[in-house]
Every structure is written in C-alpha cells, then in structure tokens.
C-alpha cells in the first residue's frame, strides 16, 4: 500500500487548502463538509493515534473516499461496499490489535457518514453471491439481457447490470474498481491485464482504469507482504534479544545463588573450626 498511501497523502495535501472552507460531501442539513472536518471527526471519534505504519493508508481511505463521494455522479452500490470493506480488511489485516482495527473502521464510517452495518452486510452478500462461481458464470449473468430489470435478483448483480446498461457512463470510483477486483478474486481469476480487459468489456467500463487498479492493487499487495515479512523478522529478532537477556539474567542469578551458597558453606566451616572441641 506504500504507493497508494503516498498518493493519498499527496491528494490530501493538495486538496486540503481547497476544501478547508468549502466543498465536501453534504451533511443532513445541506451544508458541505470540508476534508478537514472529515479528518477531525475521525480522529475525535478514534480518541487514540493510528499505528504509524498504517496512518497513511487510513488517511488515504478517508480522503479519497470522501472526495469520490463529493461527485454528483456518485452512487452507493454493493460493489462500492465490497471494495471499501474488503480493501480495508486486506490492507490492515496485520494491524497489531483486531479490536483497534475494527474501531478504526467504525470511526471511518462515522466520519464519512456511511452506514457501517449496511456496508458490511452488502459486502458480505456480494461475497456470498460470487463465492463458488466461475468467471464465465458471473460475466454471463451480467451480460444476460433476460430479466435485466428483475428486482428479485441479488443487489450486486443488479448493480453490475446497471453498470453495463450505463454503457461507459457509470461512475467509476476507486472502491468500485476494488469491488470488481474482489469479485474477480472470488471467482479465482488471476489478476492480469487481459482478465481486467474481459471484465471491463462485459461491464462496459474503461479497461484502462480497471487495468490501472489491478496493477496498483497487485503491486500494493506485494509490497504489503514484503513489509509484513520484514516486521515479522524484526519482531522475531526482538523476541530473540529479549529471550537472551532473560537467559543472561537467569545465569547471573544462578551464579549469584551459587556464590551465596558457597559463601554460606565457607562461613559454616570456619565457624565449626572455631568451635571448642567436645570433652
């Protein structure tokens, strides 16, 4: 996530001044919330610092999602939910404390004014729908014109068909792209540029955008795995150092105990020599 996180930081810095006094997703009373307010709300609700390594990634999620939701063409759908939930869980999978990670997600949703339970439920429903299906089955369902407007179809399939019907005008957010990537993975599709092109053609979205997201996702996951390995090795070395220090303390304590026992034995022997002989 290093590159994406850095991009998020740059985005945040670039737009902070612009949105400091105006712009942003609208609130219930119709006012527009600046990025600074979103960030302030998040950290106020969180009440604790984010572990340094994950801070940029968390702020990236906040800022980019907020800016995408500003767009007048933005529309919530289960694919957006799947992308946001699954990406957050993947990129923060090794967060030191599971409860703290869940709290971060809760505070993110509150800052973004998103219904956390609906996000999780929609993402889970989309996951269940795609699990066990092949790429051919999913794409065939998307391109099937029979019953296109059938409201009884799973919401995620409805969203995919609606995207196709929009014929290139459907709003493409980063979370939407991540949701498509997650669907591809659930169908055991290898993340290649060719696979991205197939899905983009079926959905009638920009192949270039989806391919860019596939590239970025793959590179980010590789860097994340490398970083996790680095931290695990560092943690193992630290544990080894702690164990060695404890072992050294134990050796010193044992030596001291032996010395004390030896001294006590010598003192006892000296005392015995000084004792008068029995008559």
Q: Any idea how many domains?
A: 1
Helical fraction: over 70%
Count of DSSP strands: 0
> What is the molecular shape?
elongated
**Class by SSE composition:** mainly alpha
Count of separate DSSP helical elements: 11
Task: Classify the beta-strand content into a percent band.
Answer: under 5%
Radius of gyration: 29 Å
Q: In this structure, how is the largest beta sheet organized?
A: none
Query: Distance N terminus to C terminus?
Result: 90 Å
Mean pLDDT: 83
Which sequence of SSEs, written as H and E, runs from N to C? HHHHHHHHHHH
- Spans with pLDDT under 50 lasting ≥5 residues? 1-30
Keywords: Coiled coil
InterPro entries: Thf1
Region (Disordered): 253-279
Pfam families: ThylakoidFormat
3D structure, described in words:
With 279 residues, the protein is mainly alpha-helical. It has one domain. It contains 11 helices and no strands. Helix 3 runs parallel beside helix 5 and helix 10 crosses helix 11. It is elongated and about 115 Å long. The N terminus is likely disordered.
